[in-house]
């Protein structure tokens, strides 16, 4: 039993909705807002539409600054990342002064999500005197109450107005959800008239990030969306094009965007990784990403790289067309589309993250509630009586792939989820894999495709199956890796592949007969051979062995580690900026000449310029080839993603790699039997490959791209638990790359740390 203790809340954000009169437009929750900073007792509100009819009330029963949303009856209550957004009642206008009866800069911390619900949802008054002092209410100047409520306003009238508002708020939220749902029904079909031969051009996008309530599977929950779309907008370009994305962050938390799989040649500061290549974009802030696509094509995606915001809706596809795409098709296809699979949670990611990182959780990852195909699925709301659920809007129904019969069609499958590996199939249709993480491969047929978070596979399906014209598309989470059980989990999601000759009838197709492969690991990558043959370098300049696992440290906290290092993001001092500034000041490498790699002195762990317990940095100078052997001492798999590169996947396995002697441990000399067995003629090149539980993986990397690059497990919970290290490559060239002033300005912005994950010391009281 944890005792309550004082904890400072940095600020309180008021968010309102129109409650009558004025415009008929449905406004998102963030259009009326104001911020109460630590120690202050009043706040001026802002209304971008200039209307004066809004409902507000603050019930300040807080706990530590993490996010939490609950639909309780017809009331929305949200606590989010150092900012509290709470139920709103009472009329106010632009620049009104809202005052608190008492200073609420200190409030009690509650020890669990259930306790948070009890406090935020308003349990019995006086139930716990320990918490009673945390309450605060908004008071208004007498003349304003008279103006808003009319002369002679009574308590009864206030109650009536409150009830009326809450009902209208529910309707307004539902309408806003319906509007968001109608945007995402395009199913991401690529342009059939795309000009692959167009000269290089700037492709410009304007994106606004907002907090918005949405119900992808029927259950209402808060999300962060780009341009009110879920999933987010498609970026489609040609190789050689320059992508320009103007981001306006109108959400309550800071954010960033990462371009998953993009090399960022010459622009490492545009990679979008908080704490490594940039500071976050603060609430109300703007930032422009600009980078040119060089030397790559295929299927990629973008997602937030701040906390687990990607799971809150901040993701979308990115497709790069090769100039020779039409000519080089090994199987000609008549249509091209995207299929995103994802696990889905009914809770805000940071509420789950707060719970996951608590003492004694021992890497007990949050279990998803649903699976989504292109942002939707069907849930029976009767199975979720404790949730505010509505699946009657036009968003719902089976996602459908309408395909011309007798043709071949390309489907680009992306796992945009936070945790679950998926197995994807289409009944009675073989899937010919032609691309893996942007690498074109010689086609090979499968009945089912296993895909981990962050990975992409393009498949060709032929619509020539006779006897039926509608078939189930099945995507199932591989739940064997889950460490617990969930009563609400629905691990399967279904779509429909329908020929143009089909009616609207439900498919009657059957599953493949062979046994399901439910192991949490990659497909057999040795079968997948790049179409453009490229042998791996015959010898590496340096060899590194890293042990990846979870360890219990201070305050009984379970954290992910590479060897002895567990990463923590620094929101105001990203390592790329520190490195470039340090190199410029020294006019040379900031690292010592000592080496941990074959004595060459050009590849080493830099524990001088960086704080190794929280920043493990592998540094190279010049163009080096390095081998990385990862041993996974965790029971779950780790899909390892490297920013800025594709690597050669040389070998993967279970247990220990082949060695001369198991007693001598893993050294380059002792694993010579493994090296003797390698086929270096044309190994698979990709940016996200998995090391299975209690297994190992050998990668070879040609380190030739100047920058600071994250190397991390792409299970979002593991990244936030610290399972990330950094590769500082071509440090000799990095000082020549100038970082725009706009990047540096992000670090000085107010609110840049809002939405950051919890710090270890936040849990100190829980471990007592």
From TrEMBL:
Region annotation (Disordered) maps to 109-128
**Domain named Plastocyanin-like: residues:** 211-324, 337-499, 606-731
UniProt-listed Pfam families: Cu-oxidase (PF00394), Cu-oxidase_2 (PF07731), Cu-oxidase_3 (PF07732)
One GO MF annotation is: oxidoreductase activity
Q: What is the lineage of its organism?
A: Eukaryota, Fungi, Dikarya, Ascomycota, Pezizomycotina
| PROSITE patterns membership | MULTICOPPER_OXIDASE1, MULTICOPPER_OXIDASE2
Residue ranges spanning the membrane: these are 143-166
The organism's place on the tree of life at top rank: Eukaryota
Tell me which InterPro entries the record gives: Cu-oxidase-like_N, Cu-oxidase_2nd, Cu-oxidase_C, Cu-oxidase_fam, Cu_oxidase_CS, Cu_oxidase_Cu_BS, Cupredoxin
Its protein name is Multicopper oxidase
What family is it from?
Belongs to the multicopper oxidase family.
Instruction: Report keywords, A-Z.
Output: Copper, Membrane, Metal-binding, Oxidoreductase, Transmembrane, Transmembrane helix
